[in-house]
Each structure stands twice: as structure tokens, then as C-alpha cells.
Amino acid sequence: MTATTQGAQRQRRLLRPTTKVLPEDARAHNRSMVLQQLFHSGPCSRADLARTTGLTRVTVSDLVSSLMTEGLVTELGLRAEGKVGKPGTLVGLRTDAF
């Protein structure tokens, strides 16, 4: 291999995008998905958010908790539907925060 060929290969490797996803990037993406879902669908329960975003309930609960701490999301009370089991607590965006 010539020096020119080796240099070109090295440059291509350096220009390739990395495929590593850092935890903080994943958290920011998941947070964005939760906020977008609340924006588009309105208030919903954590379980609904988990179903629609594909995230786990634990992840959604952690994200909602941090969004509440930041004042972006608030709990709106229990769902008024007559389903079996414990009614879900609705969460929604705080319109005054945006």
C-alpha cells in the first residue's frame, strides 16, 4: 500500500460518523419524545406515554419526574374513566412554562 492510499483510508475513517450513543444523548432523545407526545396528544397517563413512545414505564416515570422538577410538566389528577384497577394519574404540559 502506498502512503497516499493509507492516508486516504485514514481520512475516510476519521470522517465516518460514530455509531456510539452516549447515555445523555439517549436521555435527551427520550425526554424529547415524551414532550412531543404530550404536546400532540394532550394530557395522558405515564402508562399511555410508555405505550405510545415505546419506552419502559420506569423510564417514563423518571423523565416525567425530572420534567416536573423543571416545571415543564404537571400532574392534573386521576383519569375519570371507569376501567378496572387503579386509575392513572394524568400528566400534561404546563402552558405557562413555554
Automatic annotation (TrEMBL):
GO terms for biological process: regulation of DNA-templated transcription. It comes from the Bacteria. It holds the Pfam family HTH_IclR. Residues 40-75 form the HTH iclR-type domain. GO terms for molecular function: DNA binding. It comes from Modestobacter versicolor. This is ROK family transcriptional regulator.
